[in-house]
Amino acid sequence: MGKKARLTAILLLPIALAACSALSSDDNRSISFTDDRGVADQPYPKNYRVETVAFMHTYLNDPTGVRDAAMAEPVQRTVGGRLRYITCLRFSARDSDGAYRPTRERAIVYVDGRLDRMMENAAEPCAGATYAPFLELENMSR
User: Fold this and answer.
1) What is the DSSP string of the chain?
2) Which tens digits make up the pLDDT trace of 79-129?
3) Is residue 121 part of a domain?
4) pTM score, whole prediction
5) Do the domain assignments include residue 95?
6) Is 18 domain-assigned?
7) Residue 53 lies in a domain
8) Which residue segment(s) compose the domain that 83 sits in?
9) CB contact at 8 A, 137 and 91
10) How many domains in the chain?
């Protein structure tokens, strides 16, 4: 391959790649922390308690003094049309003025065994969840 042919190939490669990505673009995809392969055989999230505490430490404005923390064991539910493991979480966090908010229920979604995102509206996926105390969340510090 001559010098001119290589230069032409190098200049055309970005255009070809851009065309490929434009053809496979899906504007309805949600953004997540993990590479979602879309497979149904999701692994069980082994470190879900540790990952949840680490995530909540950054999620809450004041991670100290969380009350009424409870968590359900991971179960499989259909989320966004795909079978995922989720854990349901209930807690009452301290507001910026020091007062406590009402107890909130959230669902944490796992992809490939790792925490992917938190669902704010968890009424449907967490219906019938069996909660147990989650003291690790109540004992967080700054």
Assistant:
1) --HHHHHHHHHHHHHHHHHHHHHT--TTPPP-SS-----S-PPP-TTHHHHHHHHHHHHSS--TT-EEEEEEPPEEEEETTEEEEEEEEEEEPBPTTSPBPPPEEEEEEEETTEEEEEES--TTTTTT--EEE-HHHHT---
2) 888 999 999 999 998 887 888 889 989 999 999 999 999 999 999 999 999
3) yes
4) 0.69
5) yes
6) no
7) yes
8) 48-138
9) yes
10) 1
